[in-house]
Amino acid sequence: MDFRLGEKELALKEEIRKFAQVELPPDFVRSTVIDGEFRDFDFEISMSRKLAQRGWLVMSWPEKYGGRGASVLEQTIYEMEIAYRGIPGAWMGISGIQWVGPCLIMFGTEEQKEEYLPLIASGEKDGVWCTGYSEPNAGSDFANIRTRAVRDGDDYIINGQKVWTSAAHRARWCWLAVRTSLNAAKKHHGISIFIVDMKSPGVTVSPILNYYGRHHFNEVFFDNVRVPASNLVGEENKGWYYLMQSLAFERRSIAPTTYGTLKWILEELAKYARQTEYDGQVLCENPLVRTKLADLAIDLEVLKMFAFQLSWRISLGHIPVYESSRNKIMSDELMRRGAITGAEILGIYSQVDPDSDWAKLSGAMQGAYLGFPGQAIAAGTAEIEKSIIAQFRLGLPKSY
Amino acid sequence: MDFSFTEEQNMLRMSARDFLAKECPKSKVREMDKDERGYDPQMWHRMAQLGWMGLVFPEEYGGMGAGFMDLVILMEEMGRNILPGPFFSTVALCALPLLEYGSSEQKAKFLPQIAKGEAIWAFGLAESSGKCEATEVRLRAVLKGKDYVLEGHKLFVTDAHVADYILVVGRTRQGEGPENGITLFVVDASGPSVKMEPIPTIGGDRQFKVSLDGVTAPEDRILGTIGKGWGIVDFMLQRAAVLKCAEISGACQAVLDMTTNYAKERIQFDRPIGSFQAIQHKLADMLIDVEAVQHLLYQAAWGINVGSPSPCQISVAKAKGNEAYQRICIEAVAAHGAIGYTMDHDLGLYYRRVKAAQFAAGDTDLHKEIIANGLDL
């Protein structure tokens, strides 16, 4: 066993710290959980470009596609640090960097790799992707998707609707899951993945505001959208396999980013508790406050170890069976507890609008409090993840 | 970063698991619950022959020269099997501080006895409040001539009745803060001025009030420097917290395994209860708790193993272990239904041991306080 970070990882942390110091404006207010991404799209994309110039944006990709072949551990450290420092622009709608690119590297044609990977790696607006998975009747039961793609000469014609599509209003491309066969023995078969230009005729994006009025999700409608057959990813009807791979990529990055965000929140809360007096007592001397923050610190360590353990497994070439689900559950649980605890420590100020001058800690706690229930649903609910653990780790019967 | 054990460590784990499965089935655990000594001397002797007591001692003291992580692995297996007896008291609480702070004469005398299984040790720290804190130490040690004379009592001294020696934390000086003026003494447990009164506990272990009524301790029975004993207690508490967490980790894994197996076998509504999500999600929560304890344990143990222990990581591991062990046992009883509540079922053996484990080497409050201090609160 060895839990030391190597020189490479330590140096990377230090470089990111300096980068944040130099590149973030002094009055910078970081996005909160309820904001999601793209609080200020132009500024965030300008940061994406800078991250790309540093070779960080897609660091785990091979060099010929714009990466630098970084290890999974470096990638994990990067995600932790970026989230901890609140550096915007690192995700670019998340899809492209986190799973479209890696999946194309594994399953894409040479033409697809040459066309799309450099765009993502550049950090430009044309490298922003969204992912079309969920539909009105396919949430947790994802294999139930009904959006159809039908072959027509050299093209496919796509009809249907997607929902909860993050960043579709910013995306240039869509990584789209569709049904290509109605006759498959199981509904998991008969699914394919397409690359769709969001500027294609027949694509309509309609915003869904979350309960705090922030625009992150969308409905996306496909009305006779014509897509060249060369935009099919991998083999027709084998899409489920690629989807599972993409979800594994997505779920891996959740623990490191949540860890970074919560580490920052915990430090801010500790600082707040040191600086705030209540009833003649500094908050940090209140035993209740001390216990609550210690509780957060304990599970933050758990999340860190879970994140590293999963990275280590992947670095050995293992395909994680249940660890991603475990990490997703732990991340959501910790975000929930961090948000609630943080709000309790702010007391009555926890109700102040996060953007108001009255807000403490730049509204971070309200943002987390409002945002965590939504974040817990994305990429698999706790209920689904626990059923996955029961089935694939504990060997219990499939229950869904 | 590397989360794997060495091949030798895996072999140590498997051989410990095999030995304990054979020598210490649950029938033996139950037998020892009723036994006056609370442990089986023959098994103790065989454990010594395997080199377990002296695992981390250098060879010159009859040890195996293994690392702290090896001891953690061994104690995880002991915890999995809830091995009854004075191993934790002797090795974790007493032998490790003896090895670190003992004079060469003390080490040469006491450590080989322990390694051979010929001496059992107990540790006396807590007094009326039961807390592992310096303010708690009131037992007086007064210099008379060349010897110290000890007056006072210790509570919750585990395994005192079978101990040959008790390491007693006494106060040699008042003032200048509670941590100053504390000294550790090696006391003969069978001496005439040592009195023991059992404190019956729910866990089936053996704990005692130990009263010292004018016990004489000559200079060679002082461990470390006079007045600086709290540093030794601190050293001991850190290591013992990790080793108790190792026992907890093994116990948690055993309870999860037991409950998962039961969920696969128990049929209700014509199918195994493990096919119901209500049971599956409980088990998934338990698994996450188990793995959380394991990874925190290995992180803390690794720090000690490489010579840079982190007090925060140690406290994080023990605090999490304390809470997870309790939660896992309670959920396991719920998943089992009424059978888990019976004397005949093994689950109760684990649940009944939760409390003793939580208070060994610092309770949850103490460890959370250390964590809070680490946050600069």
What does this structure look like?
The complex is a heterodimer of chains A (about 400) and B (about 375). Chain A is built from ten helices and ten strands. By secondary structure, chain A is of the alpha+beta class. Chain A has a four-stranded mixed β-sheet, with helices on one face. A four-stranded antiparallel β-sheet of chain A has the order 2-3-7-6, with no helix packed on it. The radius of gyration of chain A is 21 Å and the shape is globular. Chain B is an alpha+beta fold and about 375 residues long. Chain B has three domains: about 110 residues, Butyryl-Coa Dehydrogenase, subunit A, domain 1, CATH 1.10.540; about 110 residues, Butyryl-CoA Dehydrogenase, subunit A, domain 2, CATH 2.40.110; about 140 residues, Butyryl-CoA Dehydrogenase, subunit A, domain 3 (Up-down Bundle). Chain B contains twelve helices and ten strands. In chain B, the strands form three sheets. In chain B, strands 1-4-5-8 form a four-stranded mixed β-sheet, with helices on one face. In chain B, strands 2-3-7-6 form a four-stranded antiparallel β-sheet, with no helix packed on it. Chain B is globular, with a radius of gyration of 21 Å. At the A-B interface, helix 6, helix 7, helix 8 and helix 10 of A face helix 7, strand 10, helix 8, helix 9 and helix 12 of B.
The portion of residues assigned to helices of chain A is 40-55%
Q: CATH H-level name of the largest domain in chain A... which superfamily?
A: Butyryl-CoA Dehydrogenase, subunit A, domain 3
Uncertain ranges of chain B: none
Fold-level CATH name of the largest domain in chain A:
Butyryl-CoA Dehydrogenase, subunit A, domain 3
The first-level CATH class name of the largest domain in chain A: Mainly Alpha
Shape of chain A: globular
What is the element layout, followed by pairings?
The complex is a heterodimer of chains A (400) and B (377).
Chain A: H1 7-23, H2 41-53, H3 72-85, H4 95-107, H5 110-122, E1 129-132, E2 148-152, E3 155-162, E4 173-179, E5 191-197, E6 203-209, E7 215-228, E8 232-233, H6 239-275, E9 277-278, E10 281-282, H7 287-315, H8 323-346, H9 364-375, H10 382-392
Parallel strand pairs in A: 1-4
Antiparallel strand pairs in A: 2-3, 3-7, 4-5, 5-8, 6-7, 9-10
Helix pairs in contact in A: 1-3, 3-6, 4-5, 4-6, 6-7, 6-8, 7-8, 8-9, 8-10
Chain B: H1 7-23, H2 26-34, H3 41-49, H4 68-80, H5 87-101, H6 104-115, E1 121-124, E2 140-144, E3 147-158, E4 165-171, E5 182-188, E6 194-199, E7 207-217, E8 222-223, H7 229-265, E9 267-268, E10 271-272, H8 277-305, H9 311-336, H10 347-351, H11 354-359, H12 364-374
Parallel strand pairs in B: 1-4
Antiparallel strand pairs in B: 2-3, 3-7, 4-5, 5-8, 6-7, 9-10
Helix pairs in contact in B: 1-4, 4-7, 5-6, 5-7, 7-8, 7-9, 8-9, 9-12
